[in-house]
Amino acid sequence: MRGDAFLVRLAAPPVEGAANDALVAFLAEHLDLPRRNIRILSGDKSRDKRVAVTGLDAATIAAKLLDQAVDG
Protein backbone atom coordinates (compact mmCIF):
# COMPACT_ATOMS: atom_id res chain seq x y z
CA MET A 1 0.00 0.00 0.00
CA ARG A 2 1.05 3.54 -0.64
CA GLY A 3 -1.30 5.83 1.24
CA ASP A 4 -4.79 4.66 0.32
CA ALA A 5 -3.67 3.19 -3.01
CA PHE A 6 -2.42 -0.26 -3.88
CA LEU A 7 1.09 -0.47 -5.29
CA VAL A 8 1.48 -3.16 -7.95
CA ARG A 9 4.87 -3.88 -9.47
CA LEU A 10 4.81 -5.45 -12.92
CA ALA A 11 7.58 -6.83 -15.10
CA ALA A 12 5.85 -5.81 -18.34
CA PRO A 13 7.35 -2.81 -20.14
CA PRO A 14 5.24 0.33 -20.55
CA VAL A 15 5.25 -0.10 -24.32
CA GLU A 16 2.14 -0.38 -26.52
CA GLY A 17 -0.10 -0.99 -23.51
CA ALA A 18 1.76 -4.09 -22.30
CA ALA A 19 1.91 -2.85 -18.70
CA ASN A 20 -1.80 -1.95 -18.76
CA ASP A 21 -2.65 -5.41 -20.09
CA ALA A 22 -0.45 -6.99 -17.41
CA LEU A 23 -2.20 -4.96 -14.70
CA VAL A 24 -5.65 -6.02 -15.89
CA ALA A 25 -4.51 -9.66 -16.08
CA PHE A 26 -2.98 -9.45 -12.59
CA LEU A 27 -6.13 -7.98 -11.07
CA ALA A 28 -8.40 -10.44 -12.89
CA GLU A 29 -6.38 -13.38 -11.62
CA HIS A 30 -6.06 -12.19 -8.02
CA LEU A 31 -9.64 -11.00 -7.75
CA ASP A 32 -10.96 -14.13 -9.50
CA LEU A 33 -12.86 -12.09 -12.07
CA PRO A 34 -12.97 -12.10 -15.87
CA ARG A 35 -10.76 -9.47 -17.51
CA ARG A 36 -13.85 -7.73 -18.91
CA ASN A 37 -14.78 -6.73 -15.32
CA ILE A 38 -11.63 -4.61 -14.97
CA ARG A 39 -11.16 -1.33 -16.79
CA ILE A 40 -8.52 1.37 -16.52
CA LEU A 41 -10.39 4.64 -16.00
CA SER A 42 -7.44 7.01 -16.12
CA GLY A 43 -3.68 6.97 -16.23
CA ASP A 44 -3.34 4.55 -19.13
CA LYS A 45 -0.06 6.32 -20.05
CA SER A 46 1.00 7.05 -16.48
CA ARG A 47 2.45 5.11 -13.56
CA ASP A 48 -0.59 6.10 -11.46
CA LYS A 49 -3.84 4.57 -12.60
CA ARG A 50 -7.47 4.53 -11.54
CA VAL A 51 -9.16 1.20 -12.15
CA ALA A 52 -12.84 0.28 -12.16
CA VAL A 53 -13.80 -3.22 -11.04
CA THR A 54 -17.32 -4.55 -11.49
CA GLY A 55 -18.65 -7.54 -9.61
CA LEU A 56 -16.99 -6.86 -6.23
CA ASP A 57 -17.32 -4.11 -3.66
CA ALA A 58 -14.33 -2.03 -2.55
CA ALA A 59 -13.97 -3.81 0.79
CA THR A 60 -13.82 -7.24 -0.88
CA ILE A 61 -11.28 -6.01 -3.43
CA ALA A 62 -9.08 -4.57 -0.69
CA ALA A 63 -9.33 -7.74 1.39
CA LYS A 64 -8.42 -9.98 -1.56
CA LEU A 65 -5.47 -7.84 -2.62
CA LEU A 66 -4.17 -7.49 0.94
CA ASP A 67 -4.52 -11.24 1.43
CA GLN A 68 -2.49 -11.83 -1.74
CA ALA A 69 0.19 -9.41 -0.52
CA VAL A 70 0.50 -11.29 2.76
CA ASP A 71 0.50 -14.72 1.12
CA GLY A 72 2.97 -13.41 -1.41
How much of the residues is beta strand, in percent?
5-15%
The best one-word shape is globular
Rg from alpha-carbon coordinates:
12 Å
Structural class: alpha+beta
Largest sheet: 2 strands, antiparallel
The total strand number stands at 2
Q: Count structural domains.
A: 1
Helix share, percent:
25-40%
Average pLDDT taken over every residue: 91
Order of helices and strands: HEEH
Query: Which runs of at least 5 residues are low in confidence (pLDDT < 50)?
Result: none
**Spatial strand sequence of the major β-sheet:** 1-2
Description of the structure:
The protein is an alpha+beta fold and 72 residues long. It has one domain (18-71). The chain is built from two helices and two strands. Strands 1-2 form a two-stranded antiparallel ribbon.
